[in-house]
Amino acid sequence: MKTIDAKAKDLQTVNRAVRAxxxxxxxxxxHAAHLHGLAAGLKLGQVEVAGDAGDYxxxxxxxxxxxxxxxxxxxxxxxxxxxxxxxxxxxGYGAGQYCYGGTVVVRGDAGDxxxxxxxxxxxxxxxxxxDEAGTYMLKGDLVVLGNAGxxxxxxxxxxxxxxxxxxxxxxxxxxxxxLTEADLAKLRGYFEQYGLQADPAQFKKIVAASAKPFYN
Amino acid sequence: xxxxxxxxxxxxxxxxxxxxxxxKCATCAEVCPHGVYVxxxxxxxxxxxxYNACVGCRICSEFCPADAIRVxxxxxxxxxxxxxTLAAVEEVHAKAQTGEYLLRGFGTQxxxxxxxxxxxxxxxxxxxxxxxxxxxxxxxxxxxxxxTCERPLRLKLPFVWAAMSFGALSLEAKQALAIGAAxxxxxxxxxxxxxxxxxxxxxxxFADEARTRKQWDPGGYLIIQWSTGRWxxxxxxxxxxxxxxxxxxxxxxxxxxxxxxxxKVTEDVARVRGVPVGSDALSPCRYYDVQTLDDxxxxxxxxxxxxxxxxPILFKLGPSRPYxxxxxxxxxGADAISIDGLVGGxxxxxxxxxxxxxxxxxxxIPPAVQALKDYGVHRKVKLIALGGIRSGLDAFKxxxxxxxxxxxxxxxEIALGCRACYACHKxxxxxGITSQKPELRARLDPVxxxxxxxxxxxxxxxxxxxxxxxxxxxxxxxxxxEDLRAMDLNTAALTxxxxxxYERPLPIWEALTPRPAAEPRGANGNGLKRARPKARRxxxxxxxx
Lengths: 216, 545
Ligand SMILES: Cc1cc2nc3c(=O)[nH]c(=O)nc-3n(C[C@H](O)[C@H](O)[C@H](O)COP(=O)(O)O)c2cc1C
Ligand code: SF4
Ligand code: SF4
Hints:
Largest interface: A-B, 39 and 34 residues
Strand order of the largest sheet of chain B: 9-19-18-16-15-12-11-10
Distance between the termini of chain B: 47 Å
Mean pLDDT of chain B: 91
Number of helices of chain B: 19
Radius of gyration of chain B: 24 Å
Helix content of chain B: 25-40%
Bound molecules: flavin mononucleotide, iron/sulfur cluster
Low-confidence stretches of chain A: none
Distance between the termini of chain A: 56 Å
Strand content of chain A: 25-35%
Number of strands of chain B: 20
Oligomer: heterodimer
Mean pLDDT of chain A: 97
Strand content of chain B: 5-15%
Structural class of chain A: alpha/beta
Structural class of chain B: alpha/beta
Strand order of the largest sheet of chain A: 1-2-3-4-5-6-7-8-9-11-10
CATH topology of the largest domain in chain B: TIM Barrel
């Protein structure tokens, strides 16, 4: 495994080294918390971030597997289209925004506006999420094992939101629906795959009340 | 305010086919975007049922096979009935009936401060001699990102097509713009609706995806728009063009995001945008993934990174606080900044926003230029003026005010045949420009459209050349405000130009240099905090830390 020490290096230098390295074996990047946009736009490879990551980790990820063994800053996995981003600790504001595909797993808590404008990704948070999580989601799944803040799933358009705990308030254009067998199997599959302890049957399922809430 | 009741529609029943043979022709009812005519299905007779709604576009007259329709301006409501003009009355009625506010396509109506009260100052004996348009050269080229990226954008002429998205525009219109850009060496822009794949090769002048056949010289460029809705955005999208434009806002709806109503979200549009068919694609008003100016800097840094430091990064602003906003873009690392004025066009917007929000283009350019000068980057970080540019004359005035290039939005639609009916949002454009309906799109041939657009650009470029040379310059980069005079007090007050006859700027302008910095804004949203102006140091291939 190749190791890149990012200490005192700039984004261009580190990302160029990561791009050169991921073509072969997995690459470890350490001391990278000051870099915003680490491992941007990768199409393949495996990146292990040792310690904390800065903002915009894995932005525009298009196929790489990126793992952070501590916390990630804001906007983790921003605008991802494919691949996986796993954060062992907490994620700041706006994890998994604007994603078209791929998977984001946050094993700790995630901040406000998590999964905003999700357009097709799976976003899985083992802890709690802040306010406005799942705002204007158009496709994909948001699964939160803990609790949610205010305006949860606000203006949901399509896609499904599952919550294990409770919300402070539910957003506009949302409707609760009973879990189907397919939902249970799907959640069970997610939990098994990422080693999460939760009972799918205890989850609330939220879908859009209207497919077109803005203009008739 | 909608322009209703401002036109008289009359049908010459001697000539009208329907009047002679009821049921034979219903063309006017089919093409009128505002339901002015109705076909009585029982009798087959055409009636004018809703003359108040006419906006004077004359589409009906153009399509009428018998040349039977005349549309004339009505007596000015503003003289006799203001403020309760028929337009104002009808607007209240419409809201009272539906409970809904109005939407509008195309752009602003009615008079707003514009380029017309600015005149060009020619050279005579006391200033540099005029240059000969017919026998001497004039440099119209504009280069964006010369010092900051590996592949600067070299516009052959000081023009771009404004960002207009697929979805707002038809596929054929997008293709025509790309071909028009290729024929003239200018840039087209994806807009915020994702990439129509053919744009990428048509804009460079190739007729085929493999790029084996160069069909249109000299070849143009494609600007990739990155916006708050991030429709159809991926790493491949960002790398598909020659520059990336970060959209902050636009003139027709500053402070709001793009609007595409569900009726125009067909399967093709939905696929490119990655949204459900039939859903309204309403971009957020701000970036959810930017909260501070530092975030914006980081966004520019990762955009440079994913494009391998090859491409210029542009910003696009709506007309708000031009000095402070341009300063913020410079600090965020822009290679060029577009600023769109009040009358800037749109595919769809709330009526009151398009009509009543924002600063006129002529009042945006001087503060924007001042910000560039205060940072020591005027003519390095390029300024592109948008909003109400109709000709080479308007373009020249914008350039002499200090812009480096101008963009055409509405004028491009008109070059494709549009007659300014303000109904683009409804999706029934009779010319196939802003419709997604196959039968209407079939009326627009992309190659013929591209040729019309290229003709318009060539003519406008010649106009800019004439004006540049008659005012004694060899290059558009030499133009200054000394080449212009305001012809009334308002225009002098808005622009800081010398007032014709008085030959000085108004005293309020003389007192105002240097311009005050804008008040600091909150750290939240995109009203970003700014540091004190300082010249930007740029290292080739690297973003300043
Ligand atoms: C049909 C249409 C679609 C537009 N779509 C976008 C867009 O996707 N992104 C954007 O930044 N501006 C968009 N605009 C605004 C133009 O880019 C531009 O700012 C404006 O048209 C310039 O003013 P003008 O129309 O007076 O030339 C659109 C305008 C029109 C007419
Ligand atoms: S087509 Fe245009 S000009 Fe003719 S009636 Fe309708 S709005 Fe008026
Ligand atoms: S583009 Fe079409 S719909 Fe829009 S204003 Fe022009 S003619 Fe009307």
